[in-house]
Specification:
Strand content: 5-15%
Number of helices: 22
Oligomer: single chain
Structural class: alpha/beta
Number of strands: 13
Length: 659
């Protein structure tokens, strides 16, 4: 916003100067900054048993006359496209439940009449709503009070409910006008705007005139304090001008409601960039006599006004919350003062330390070895067996993807044969051994990467267990985490060395006692005659059982003897390579289980004792810290005190804003 030379105020808009700026729906833009920290603090106080109930944000109900653009207002606020059509579009109440979602992939559900329809893409939401509306209310203009519930789960959005109501019909061209008016006026609209814990957005079209605003009259009769009703005038671009603006403002002032002028999107215009740019440019053409007038135009201004109402609602609950905090702080401090100030004796501290060590060992044994997750039943990240199986399956898939049977068929084998015959490279090695070395080198990094991934995951699990169980002992936790990290690094390096040795052994010796090798090799060689026949007849493709279609056109010019050797080498290596991969996976699984068991049962315990007793200053230094009751109380007092200070500051900010 800026002042021009005449003293008038013009509108600044971020999208006008930078159309490519990333878009976040206006209703959510200030959410993380203004409201989310308050709700997180309230949830923290609930977990500390300071308060019993949280704070619920008011539902936003969008009411208005028929064809006023209610749905367009909602989609501009939350960034989701809703059905739009001339005259009557919304024929049933649409309850939009926004829910924060940890997953980066959004989910959409449409629920009605005990049905639940999953919507696969956001662009299909409008189509799904139209289809459900016809199913519930029938074709035509019929309106019914059977709601549709659209559940939107997205990462980073607030937990909020918005309701889009059917518009009040004011068009005399409909023969069933009286029936529609009766259904809406006496039923649906009144039912949804009557509760005192909701915000009412009353929407009217600028082109329809403001003197006969039916839904606003209904709001006035139900919202006597006029604190929860906000008037929204849409489609201002259709008749916009300075004369209309003055007249509209005068009419709004006469009904004493807060008001916002907005411009809806048209046709296929995007509500995020194109509609907002057009809105900003139109409002830029106006001359506002004050900053308060400037704050009454645009979707961002509407979102900001809604946020103010939400904050005001929250502020009414906060004095009682602060009262509960003060009472809890007094109780905690009295309890803390009753505790003896002396620290634990050395024998008691030693006993407590060994108990902690034993408890850690038992917990890790359950999670990493026994597959018991009672304490973390709902946290799949800690379910070690399941996660390791997933990582192992992925590792196995990557290994087997190295077997590309039909890609450049026999090219690598021919190259190896020619190099061996011509003495270009490692002529003392037979072709099979040389080819095996190359194939092992090609996958060398896969098992090493897998080991690093697994140990990185195990370190996360161990760190989580340490924090959850021993977070109240900061000094001891620091030593235990350092010791655990040292053990993990040591075991990872030891395992990597063994994997490297395994890979080198595979390169050095091509041996197997697996009887499946001979059977598999002979089965593959059964394709030899068909292959030779296809090449001799210049047949470009051959279909080989279990391996699909193979292109052989590039082999037409290869000498028969070389081609025959390459085919035999390929079949032999294919059969043997399956043995190698199977052996590699099996060995890594066995080695992994052995190393985890060794780490949990012996290594971690020894390293923690060494770290605490030798490098951590001994048991004397942490004897006071091992008084868990005092530590727990001090931690709780600190958390509650910080929450109190934060909420008091929030209350001051809200009251200043309201004033």
């Amino acid at each position: 916003m800026a002042d021009n030379n005449d003293g008038d105020i013009v509108v600044d808009h971020p999208f006008v100067d930078n159309p490519s700026k990333s878009y976040f729906p206006p209703l959510f833009a200030s959410w993380n900054e203004k409201i989310c920290p308050i709700l997180e603090t309230i949830d923290k106080l609930r977990s500390l048993n300071v308060i019993k109930e949280g704070i619920h944000l008011p539902t936003i109900v969008v009411a208005g006359d028929n064809d006023s653009g209610k749905s367009s207002v909602i989609e501009s606020l939350i960034g989701i496209t809703l059905p739009c059509a001339p005259k009557i579009c919304t024929r049933v109440p649409l309850i939009i439940k926004l829910q924060n979602h940890a997953n980066s992939v959004p989910e959409f559900l449409l629920e009605y009449q005990k049905k639940s329809v999953r919507i696969m893409k956001e662009m299909l939401i409008s189509k799904a709503i139209n289809k459900a509306t016809v199913e519930v209310a029938g074709e035509g203009k019929r309106i019914t009070n059977v709601p549709l519930t659209l559940v939107v789960k997205k990462k980073g959005i607030p937990d909020l409910t918005i309701i889009d109501l059917p518009g009040i019909c004011s068009d005399w061209m409909y023969a069933d006008r009286d029936d529609i008016l009766k259904q809406i006026s006496s039923g649906i609209t009144t039912e949804y705007i009557k509760p005192k814990d909701i915000i009412i957005l009353n929407v009217a079209s600028a082109g329809g005139g403001l003197s006969n605003w039916k839904s606003l009259s209904m709001s006035q009769s139900l919202d006597k304090t006029e604190e929860r009703t906000l008037a929204v005038i849409t489609k201002c671009d259709l008749i916009w001008g300075s004369d209309y603006f003055k007249t509209a403002v005068a009419n709004i002032f006469s009904i004493r409601h807060p008001y916002i002028f907005v411009i809806n999107r048209i046709n296929d215009e995007t509500y995020n960039h194109e509609a907002r740019i057009r809105e900003a440019k139109i409002f830029d053409g106006l001359r506002f006599s004050s900053k308060s007038e400037k704050s009454t135009v645009g979707i961002p201004a509407l979102a900001n006004r809604i946020l103010q109402i939400q904050l005001l609602t929250i502020s009414k609950c906060l004095p009682e919350v602060v009262k509960n905090i003060n009472e809890r702080l007094n109780d905690l401090n009295l309890e803390l003062n009753r505790l003896p100030n002396n620290s634990l004796s050395i024998p008691d501290a030693m006993a407590a330390f060994m108990h902690i060590l034993g408890s850690l060992k038992e917990t890790l044994q359950k999670i990493l070895i026994g597959g018991e997750y009672n304490e973390y039943a709902d946290d799949r990240q800690i379910h070690c067996d399941d996660r390791l199986v997933e990582m192992l399956d992925e590792f196995s898939k990557k290994l087997h993807s190295s077997v590309k049977f039909s890609e450049s068929f026999l090219v690598e084998e021919i190259q190896v044969i020619e190099e061996t015959n011509n003495g270009i490279l490692l002529s003392h090695l037979p072709p099979h051994s040389l080819l095996l070395r190359r194939k092992v080198n090609n996958i060398y990094n896969l098992p090493l990467g897998f080991v690093k991934e697994v140990w990185g995951y195990l370190e996360i699990v161990c760190d989580r267990v340490l924090i959850d169980h021993y977070g109240n002992y900061p000094q001891l936790l620091s030593s235990m985490r350092k010791a655990t990290h040292n053990v993990m690094e040591k075991m990872k390096f030891e395992f990597l060395e063994r994997v490297v040795e395994m890979m080198e052994m595979e390169k050095a010796t091509d041996y197997t006692s697996d009887p499946d090798f001979i059977a598999s090799w002979h089965k593959l060689m059964d394709n030899r005659d068909e292959f030779m026949k296809a090449v001799c007849n210049y047949q470009e493709e051959i279909n080989m059982e279990a391996h699909g279609t193979i292109n052989v056109k590039h082999l037409f010019s290869v000498q028969d003897n070389t081609r025959d050797q390459a085919f035999e080498l390929k079949m032999r290596m294919t059969a043997y390579w399956k043995i190698v991969l199977k052996r590699l996976v099996d060995w890594i699984v066995l080695g992994l289980r052995f190393m985890i068991k060794k780490m949990v049962i012996r290594e971690i315990e020894m390293e923690i004792v060494n770290e605490v007793m030798v490098h951590g200053g001994g048991i004397e230094k942490i004897s006071e810290e091992l008084s868990p009751e005092r530590v727990n109380l001090q931690t709780t007092v600190g958390l509650v005190q910080k929450s109190k200070e934060f909420l008091e500051q929030v209350m001051d900010d809200i009251f200043i804003s309201v004033d």
